[in-house]
């Protein structure tokens, strides 16, 4: 069957329509050339089949011509393979980037403390210089003041660097919470877009711009944490997202990561116990007593608390409940101490109780469980854990500083305990010289007679490193002699500088500089390794992103060329219509 005149007109009309739609898509591409996450689009067309194909019996020998062009879809030019590659690399890149940032901060902290004559290095140097002067004259008040003050400066330097590392640890721990909140926010947006896309595409259309928004959010999410993407089984327009097997987004439902810590729960319980204790005391002071309800609640709270940590409890004078843990009071009457404060001298326990813990739909999200393996979240989690020398976190370096502080305290104390303080009595015949004085403060156990039975250097940290009360209160308590000193305040009838010399010699024998440099050297190697991996991953990420952009990004030159092509197509179709119009005009005028 030959194509009719009006069939040709309809065919040309379809060409005009499709050309205009192509121009519209091209215009949309150009307008969004700089829009983040935008994927260029193109019109997918197909020739309209000839009408004769629908007849059971068709003419034989006639030229069969189609009926023009039709639009099948508006397609995004995107590679799923490159999308997956980009997201996997982005997860690894963000992990190394945030880990490197933390290590760089630590390096800067140590470098500022290790500059010659400054910070911790300078404090150690000044302390032992003062001890050197002390060996030449242990009777000098000036020398003793110098030893006391430089020792105080040494402990303060340790305190400062430890507090800075604590601050960094707290920042990293808080970043876990903030990252979880960011993930929760994105999951809600993805679920909402799933709903919008599914609703839009029910009519057979493709929600390309909404899909771009969703893909951009998924790219961002991959930077936060390792994710797995799958097509929803019920509606293929939707995407499901999971973290380590735990569903984060399922269709239009967004899961939410919950954030807590043992310390938060413990403090809630102990705070409530303190409140009940206060109410009981008020009742007792008014002539009453604890109610059965109060006692029942206290027992329930005690049971909850024991399930978290092995606390010790006892009934106080008012009938309330006092709570202690590891020798420190958590609840005393109506007073309450936060557990992270109570265990601050025990780094391992402080880290364990203070660390944020995440869960998603009842599934633990952690490095240990294997659910978190990359992204910013993994970096923060790793940095708050102690780790080991192969994969150290912030607590690892905190403990190295603790070890150094303990070594200094123990070595100096062991020497100082053998010496005698200076005689401050003005009579040669009477001596106030004492032995057994601790130079640096350390917790001890004593018997009924006051004799030390045990020393607890394990509870000494760089954060609580300090002079003993005896040394703080009186410079004359600094031991310099190995024998009892008798003096009238100006001349020594007995005494020597043997202990003073041993204290000074400790610098060379104990090699504190080497210990400190070893810690810093280890950090430098760890940081260099992290930087190297980061550079490699950044290069790979940029390479894949460039490939992805070359496919899905908008090229102004290419779109301009397409615009000219579609414009010419439009003109050609218009000429066909004009020619048919003239033919029809001539045909009508013949009648």
Report on the structure:
The structure is a single chain. This protein has 591 residues and is of the alpha+beta class. It has four domains: 97 residues, no CATH class; 90 residues, no CATH class; 209 residues, no CATH class; 93 residues, no CATH class. The protein contains 15 helices and 17 strands. The strands form six sheets. A four-stranded antiparallel sheet has the order 3-4-5-6, with helices on one face. A four-stranded antiparallel sheet has the order 8-9-10-11. A three-stranded antiparallel sheet has the order 7-12-13. Helix 2 runs parallel beside helix 5, helix 2 runs parallel beside helix 10 and helix 3 packs antiparallel against helix 4. The longest helix has 61 residues. It is elongated. The two termini are 25 Å apart. The model has no long low-confidence stretch (mean pLDDT 91).
Category from helices, strands and their pairing: alpha+beta
How much of the polypeptide forms β-strand, as a percent range? 5-15%
Biggest sheet character: 4 strands, antiparallel
**Taking Cα atoms only, what radius of gyration do you get, to the nearest Å?**
39 Å
What is the count of distinct domains? 4
Number of strands: 17
Shape, principal axes of CA atoms: elongated
- Contiguous runs where pLDDT drops below 50 for at least 5 residues: none
Distance between the termini: 25 Å
Helicity range: 55-70%
């Amino acid at each position: 069957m030959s194509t009719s005149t009006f069939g040709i007109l309809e065919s040309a009309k379809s060409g005009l329509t499709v050309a205009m739609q192509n121009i519209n898509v091209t215009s949309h591409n150009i307008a969004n050339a700089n829009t983040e996450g935008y994927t260029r689009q193109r019109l997918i067309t197909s020739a309209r089949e000839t009408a004769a194909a629908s007849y059971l019996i068709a003419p034989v020998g006639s030229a069969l011509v189609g009926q023009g062009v039709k639009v099948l879809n508006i397609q995004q030019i995107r590679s799923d393979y490159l999308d997956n590659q980009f997201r996997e690399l982005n997860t690894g890149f963000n992990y190394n980037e945030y880990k490197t940032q933390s290590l760089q901060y630590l390096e800067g902290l140590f470098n500022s403390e290790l500059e010659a004559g400054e910070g911790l290095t300078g404090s150690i140097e000044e302390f032992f210089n003062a001890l050197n002067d002390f060996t030449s004259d242990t009777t000098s008040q000036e020398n003793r003041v110098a030893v006391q003050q430089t020792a105080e400066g040494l402990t303060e330097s340790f305190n400062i660097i430890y507090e800075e590392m604590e601050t960094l640890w707290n920042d990293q721990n808080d970043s876990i919470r903030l990252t979880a909140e960011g993930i929760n926010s994105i999951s809600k947006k993805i679920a909402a877009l799933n709903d919008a896309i599914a609703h839009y595409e029910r009519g057979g259309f493709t929600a390309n711009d909404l899909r771009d928004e969703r893909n951009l959010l998924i790219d961002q999410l991959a930077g936060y944490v390792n994710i797995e993407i799958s097509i929803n089984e019920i509606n293929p327009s939707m995407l499901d997202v999971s973290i380590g097997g735990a569903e984060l987004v399922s269709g239009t439902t967004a899961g939410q990561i919950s954030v807590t810590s043992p310390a938060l729960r413990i403090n809630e319980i102990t705070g409530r116990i303190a409140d009940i204790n206060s109410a009981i005391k008020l009742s007792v002071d008014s002539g009453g007593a604890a109610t059965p309800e109060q006692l029942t609640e206290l027992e329930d709270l005690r049971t909850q608390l024991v399930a978290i940590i092995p606390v010790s409890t006892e009934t106080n004078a008012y009938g309330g409940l006092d709570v202690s843990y590891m020798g420190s009071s958590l609840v005393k009457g109506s007073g309450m101490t936060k557990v992270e404060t109570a265990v601050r001298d025990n780094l391992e326990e402080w880290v364990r109780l203070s660390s944020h813990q995440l869960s998603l739909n009842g599934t633990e999200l952690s490095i240990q469980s294997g659910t978190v393996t990359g992204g910013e979240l993994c970096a923060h989690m790793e940095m708050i854990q102690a780790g080991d020398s192969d994969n150290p976190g912030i607590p690892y370096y905190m403990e190295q500083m603790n070890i150094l502080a303990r070594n200094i305290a123990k070595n100096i104390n062991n020497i100082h305990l053998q010496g005698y303080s200076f005689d401050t009595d003005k009579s040669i015949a009477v001596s106030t010289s004492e032995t057994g004085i601790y130079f640096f403060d350390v917790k001890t156990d004593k018997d009924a007679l006051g004799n030390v039975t045990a020393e607890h250097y394990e509870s000494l940290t760089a954060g609580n490193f300090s002079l003993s009360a005896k040394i703080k209160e009186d410079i004359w308590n600094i031991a310099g002699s190995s024998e009892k000193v008798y003096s009238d305040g100006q001349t020594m009838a007995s005494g020597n500088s043997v202990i003073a010399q041993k204290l000074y010699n400790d610098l060379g024998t104990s090699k504190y500089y080497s210990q400190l440099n070893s810690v810093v050297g280890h950090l430098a190697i760890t940081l260099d390794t992290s930087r190297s991996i980061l550079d490699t991953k950044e290069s790979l990420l940029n390479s894949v992103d460039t490939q992805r952009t070359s496919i899905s990004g908008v090229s102004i030159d290419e779109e301009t060329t397409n615009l000219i092509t579609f414009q010419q197509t439009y003109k050609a179709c218009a000429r066909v219509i004009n020619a048919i119009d003239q033919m029809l005009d001539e045909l009508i005028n013949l009648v």
